[in-house]
Amino acid sequence: MNSSLRDQIESLRATIRRHDALYYVHATPEITDLEYDRLMRQLQELEAAHPEFDSDESPTRKVGGAPIAGFVTVEHRVPMLSIDNVYTEAELAEFGQRVSKLLAGRPCEWLVEFKVDGVALSLIYEEGKLVRAVTRGDGRRGDDVTHNARTMRGVPLQLELLTPTANAKSKAARGSLFDGEADASLIPTLLEVRGEAYISNSEFAQLQLASTERGEEPLKNSRNATAGAIKLLDPTECAERKLRFFAHSVGSLEGATFATHAEFLKRIEQLGIPSVPRTAVLPSFEAAVEYCQTLMQDLHSLDFEVDGLVLKVNDLALRQQLGATSKAPRWIVAFKWEKYEAETRVVDITVQVGKTGTLTPVASLAPVEIAGTTVSRASLHNRDEIERLGIQIGDWVIVEKAGKIIPHVVRTEVHRRDGTERPFAFPTECPECHTAVVQDDGGVYIRCPNPTCPAQLREALRYFASRAAMDIEGLGTKLIEQLTEHKLLNSFADIYRLSDRRAELLKLERLGAKSVDNLLAGVEASRQRPLWRLLTALNLRHVGTRTAQLLADRFGSMEALSNATVAELAEVEEIGDVIAESVHGFFASDYGRQIIGELKDLGLNMGSAADAAAAAARQTAGILSGKTLVVTGTLARFKRDEIHSIIQKHGGRPAGSVSKNTDFLIAGADAGSKLEKAESLGVKVLSEDEFLTLVGEDQ
After folding, report:
1. Angle of CA points 287, 292, 293, to nearest 5°
2. Identified catalytic residue from 62, 115, 242, 266
3. Which candidate in 54, 96, 386, 446 could, as Cys together with 285 as Cys, close a disulfide (CB 3.0–4.6 Å)?
4. Please, what are the domains in the chain?
5. Quick check: is 115 catalytic?
6. What is the pLDDT of residues 119-128, one digit of tens each?
7. 24 band by pLDDT with thresholds 50, 70 and 90
8. Using only C-alpha atoms, what is the Rg of the chain?
9. pTM over 0.85
């Protein structure tokens, strides 16, 4: 009986730990909060009735425990060094050049992650059990705050290998770019995980409200609130602050080895410890810097504070080679920005319709100065963002401007509400053409499905004429609004009919003969823009500049592209099923066929049969035709993009991960998990020289 009860309790504990990991690590909960609470109550009742099965690692011990008398200072096994900071792109480039010089130009992968604005914390696990949590302190010694770390979300008391179920699409949900599976070996005997303790913006807003209701002074900011909570002597008080934890580094490690930092992050995610969301592995420093721009544009989507980005060498052996100065490692840098924020009020919330019909809510703000500029508007991005922020018309909000980034709303100051606020109702029809709106399947965006919507037309025309697309000089936003208002522009094709309407153009305000002639000259020059620019300008869903270039290179002409099947489109590098379906759907639609037909008749460059034949020849004549190749490790003679170009030149398809469909793996020095997976699947492994011999470029 006792054995059966023990098994029941242990099974229940394991189930709860698994659901904790699915919720806090992978953001893919399988049960509701109510169902989770029922499991927790069941465990509490069993433990209370059978204290002989008590365990310090039980999930019920996450909150509670007796207050401590004071803090004990602990020496770090591995010093927690600071990292160097840079504040400009020029300084960032200098850092990259310095590392490249130290590596004698040897290429290497880089990781990029958000720099969470929290409190540094080190978690130490022995045989899978949390035994100690220590603050950074002076880098050599810190305070033992284990009693408070035990209350944090994302800090499991007992590590267990998690196997997500089929519907737990963890990495896609969290935005991770790590591919493949982590090696499910034993839990390390000693594992020190370093990261940041923090309070989410939404939970900080609720803490502010609770403080106000108690008649206390509001907390200054989430970082200060986190630091104060960690140094509380009573863990139950710390638990009320609802601290969370994100991992980003490894300290001491025994009983396991990793070739790259990405492998370490995969492993700890399997063990139930969340790493910083959106962390990505990039093939070069230049690619890492480019990804920084992507992350900086996505700050609005975060529910936690950041004060920069961190770039670090992925290969752990190269880190050892690079070493450290007396102050900081040479293989890592923080790209920081000055954070400026202000408090202001939401006067109204309106909705804009974008070029693809996306309805974007925008907050009209009481004007406030932030970093030397007056801010009166801020995008709220989508309906889910409004719900996450809990924002209402009339609310006081914190607006942040970090570096050169467009201002965004960080959180709602719910404790300042006075009852005059009004909830915002997201429209059920397009505010411009009144068509019933639809939501993307499995997505967050709500769109107007009417392709002739006037608002979509204006935005689509603006994008068509932009520098990124057809680059039509003189056709800017104001003029497009004027031309659509006077019915001179009702489609892309109408741009190329303007030469027949010169007399009507001259009658418009602020358009003299010289301006009209310049406009018509810009339109005429754009007729011969390359095919990829036209594909970009057509505003196909999911197709930007890079995708348009790949399609143009692969098919050569608009005719060949329009006749391609979904399967043929999906075979193109970096183009999966979603993009392929979108492109095929456009060319198969009456709307798409009409647009292409009109633009062709008006003399735009559609590519040629010769271009299409050459593109097809590259795919069928090359020795790698129909083959998929993956590159891993450090190459001696090429950068990653250079060898990818050679693969494509000979008709092959470069891919990022090894699967049963991989034909060859090109393995350089220090190849890691991809090599192991290739060998387990029986994939042919080539050295760099063997690959060059295969394609006839070994001379």
Report:
1. 105
2. 115
3. 96
4. 2-62 (1.10.287.610), 74-159+185-336 (3.30.470.30), 339-416 (2.40.50.140), 454-526 (1.10.150.20), 531-621 (1.10.150.20), 628-694 (3.40.50.10190)
5. yes
6. 999 999 999 9
7. low
8. 29
9. no
